[in-house]
Each structure stands twice: as structure tokens, then as C-alpha cells.
Fold this sequence. Notes:
This protein is mainly α. The chain has one domain. Helices cover 74% and strands 0% of the residues. It has helices at residues 3-13, 22-35, 40-46, 51-77. Helix 2 crosses helix 4 (51-77). The protein starts with a helix and ends with a helix.
Amino acid sequence: MSVELANEIWTEIKRYINSVDRNDAAETMVSVLIDNDVSAEEIKSAFKGDAEIKRALADYLKDDSEIEDNEFNDQYDDDY
């Protein structure tokens, strides 16, 4: 899926999503894009004017780095 197409779809459908549900929908959009090998930089560039997507991407990247840190720590905790 092209990130530009995803942006167009998101722009059209988000007005039909209740504002309380938009963050969850944005998180799903980011997950789908990441699962389809769209980089974080491409997402940032394509959705630069969308607060919900930017917030969801930041949360995703934060969660991803925490997982990597935990995996790193787990790997070296076994040595002690």
C-alpha cells in the first residue's frame, strides 16, 4: 500500500470516526503501515499535518524502543 494512498483514505474516513475513537483508529493505521514495510520517516512525511497519526507514530516508536531495550537487558541479565 502506498503511504500517499493511505493518507488520502485516512483524510476521507477520519471525519466519520468519532473523535474519542480517532486515536485508536490512528494507532491501527500506523500499525498497518508499519506491517506493510512503510518506514516511520515515510509516515511522518506523508501525514505531517495530522496530529492523531503523528501521536500514534510517536507512541508506536516509543513502545518499540522500550521493547528493544527490554530485549537488550534480558539478553545481558542472563550473564549475571
